[in-house]
Specification:
- A four-stranded antiparallel sheet has the order 3-4-5-6. Strands 7-8-9 form a three-stranded antiparallel sheet, covered by helices on one side.
- The protein has two helices and nine strands.
- It starts with about 35 loop residues before the first strand and ends with a helix.
- The chain is of the alpha+beta class.
């Protein structure tokens, strides 16, 4: 009797929607010349790399655009942010972003069905769970320095949810 292979998040992290893959390393080529192209001038025996001159400019362009997209004017609205040595959660006008070690996922407000918080009776681990409309949930635990932070975090998260989360 053969057993079917087990699939799921335990074996394939890409199985979970919302988790982003690693960013490609290195500059992306822009323009007709590939990144390793070499051009020769007539009469000169020494090759000159054409991409080296344009690569820094190409690399600067996306970084110049990214902060403009990611920057938010100060005082634009409430922001909730909590983190410990491994986990981090940020909730603002763009949505909710969770990260644990090197893994991260991002949810826009229209992708979220509910956000649930849970503070334990004993201990200092504050749990926030993001629920999606397709009945999936993504919990993250943040270790607080003191249990008094739980009330503060609840109030900050409630302010963000009141401002940005719209129930259908």
């Amino acid at each position: 009797m053969k057993a079917e292979p087990v699939t799921g998040a335990g074996f394939d992290p890409a199985f979970i929607p919302g988790i982003t893959g690693p960013a490609p390393s290195g500059p992306t080529p822009s323009g007709p010349a590939p990144s390793g192209a070499v051009t020769k001038e007539p009469g000169d025996g020494a090759p000159e790399p054409a991409a080296e001159e344009s690569a820094p400019e190409a690399a600067e362009e996306p970084t110049a655009e990214e902060p403009a997209d990611d920057e938010e004017p100060p005082g634009d609205g409430p922001v909730f942010e909590a983190s410990d040595r491994r986990a981090r959660i940020v909730a603002d006008r763009r949505g909710v972003r969770l990260s644990l070690d090197e893994e991260a996922c991002e949810f826009r407000w229209d992708e979220i069905a509910a956000v649930e918080t849970e503070s334990p009776r004993f201990g200092k681990r504050y749990t926030i769970t993001v629920h999606t409309p397709d009945r999936r949930w993504y919990p993250i635990e943040i270790e607080a320095a003191a249990r008094a932070r739980f009330k503060e975090w609840d109030e900050q998260l409630d302010a963000v949810l009141d401002a940005y989360f719209e129930e259908a």
